[in-house]
């Protein structure tokens, strides 16, 4: 069985401190209790580590061991994607640059943000390209991204990596631990379902169309006969927090709605889903209008009872 992040941190702390794993876990729980559960288990374990004077600074970490809040981290990964370099003006009016790239190892992948022009030059000169294995040192974790400033280093590595994990990494998380930008899966109860809103899409490309006189038009395909699509909001809660989730047409069908355009039928059907516990997967984004996080659902499925039991046993 794959060890969770938490188990690996505990193991590292145990090795470095000589304390028994059980003792460390007790300290983690005590710390969480003291903070009224506001901190995740991973986070509390890190606090315990720093209280014991243990740092991960000189260790080369696997990508799935990189956790929010870690500083001075070292890792190795293969560059799987480099986005265009962005030039911007700082508050002082100086020209600066930033570039995002993704690196992967056999455990996971992560977004890396370079803020230093000297580091970015390595990309401009082609020393670092897609496919290059890079060694990163002295970087900091900001949420789930690895940030490199002027004290950080990135350079091509001699190390060869086998098969790297390029598919989107979905982390299991409690809603209370959600951060903007997370790709997460969470088991939660449906507390509320709001009436759907409708919009029109192009039948060719599925993009939103605009009304033009009597008809509709797609920027790419011109005048089209559009299809009607629904979008609805849910309130999900897993005991750690609640969040507004956004479900588009296909997810609503998958949840089990069949009569979305009929308000009466929708209200009737929705009764079946209130209080149901399911596993939701998606992306956490900031709703710019309300300035609150929202969970854009990409997939959902029934919570399988065996899964629930095995999760409860681990706690
Ligand atoms: Zn179109």
List keywords for this structure.
five-stranded mixed barrel; binds zinc ion; 315 residues; five-stranded mixed beta barrel; alpha+beta
Taking pLDDT < 50 over at least 5 consecutive residues as the criterion, the unreliable ranges are none
How many helices does DSSP assign? Answer: 7
Number of strands: 18
In terms of DSSP E residues, the strand content is 35-45%
Largest sheet: 5 strands, mixed, barrel
Helical coverage, percent range: 10-25%
Report the mean per-residue pLDDT as an integer: 88
**What quaternary form is this?**
single chain
Distance between the termini: 16 Å
> What overall geometry do the principal axes of the alpha carbons give?
globular
Structural class: alpha+beta
The helix/strand order is: HHHEEEEEHEEEEEEEEEEEHHEEH
Q: What Rg do the Cα atoms give?
A: 23 Å
Topology:
Blueprint: H1 5-17, H2 21-34, H3 41-51, E1 60-61, E2 73-82, E3 86-89, E4 95-104, E5 109-114, H4 117-124, E6 133-142, E7 145-148, E8 153-156, E9 171-172, E10 183-193, E11 197-201, E12 210-212, E13 215-218, E14 222-224, E15 227-237, E16 242-248, H5 249-255, H6 263-270, E17 277-287, E18 292-302, H7 305-314
Parallel strand pairs: 1-2, 5-7, 9-10, 16-18
Antiparallel strand pairs: 2-4, 2-6, 3-4, 4-5, 6-7, 6-8, 10-15, 10-17, 11-15, 12-13, 13-14, 15-16, 17-18
The structure holds zinc ion (ZN).
């Amino acid at each position: 069985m794959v060890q969770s992040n938490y188990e690996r941190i505990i193991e590292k702390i145990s090795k470095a401190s000589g304390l028994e794993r059980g003792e460390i876990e007790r300290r983690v729980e005590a710390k969480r209790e003291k903070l009224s559960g506001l901190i995740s288990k991973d986070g509390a374990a890190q606090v315990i580590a720093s209280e014991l004077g243990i740092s991960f600074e000189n260790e080369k970490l696997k990508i799935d061991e990189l956790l929010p809040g870690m500083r001075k981290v070292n890792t190795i990964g293969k560059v799987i994607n480099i986005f265009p370099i962005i030039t911007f003006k700082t508050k002082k009016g100086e020209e600066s640059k930033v570039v995002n790239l993704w690196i992967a190892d056999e455990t996971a992948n992560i977004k890396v943000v370079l803020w230093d022009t000297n580091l970015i030059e390595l990309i401009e000169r082609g020393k670092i390209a897609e496919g290059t294995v890079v060694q990163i040192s002295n970087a900091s974790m900001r949420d789930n991204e690895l940030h490199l400033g002027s004290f950080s280093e990135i350079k091509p590595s001699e190390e060869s990596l086998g098969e790297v994990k390029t598919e989107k990494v979905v982390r299991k998380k409690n809603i209370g631990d959600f951060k903007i930008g997370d790709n997460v899966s969470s088991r939660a109860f449906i507390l509320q379902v709001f009436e759907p809103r409708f919009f029109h899409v192009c039948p060719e490309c599925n993009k939103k169309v605009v009304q033009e006189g009597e008809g509709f038009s797609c920027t790419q395909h011109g005048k089209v006969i559009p299809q009607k699509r629904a979008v609805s909001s849910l309130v999900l809660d897993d005991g750690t927090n609640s969040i507004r989730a956004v479900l588009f047409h296909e997810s609503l069908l998958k949840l089990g709605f069949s009569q979305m355009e009929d308000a009466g039928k929708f209200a009737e059907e929705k009764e079946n889903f209130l209080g149901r516990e399911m596993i939701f997967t998606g992306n956490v984004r900031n709703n710019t209008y309300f300035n609150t996080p929202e969970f854009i659902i990409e997939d959902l499925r029934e919570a399988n009872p065996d899964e629930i039991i095995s999760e409860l046993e681990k706690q």
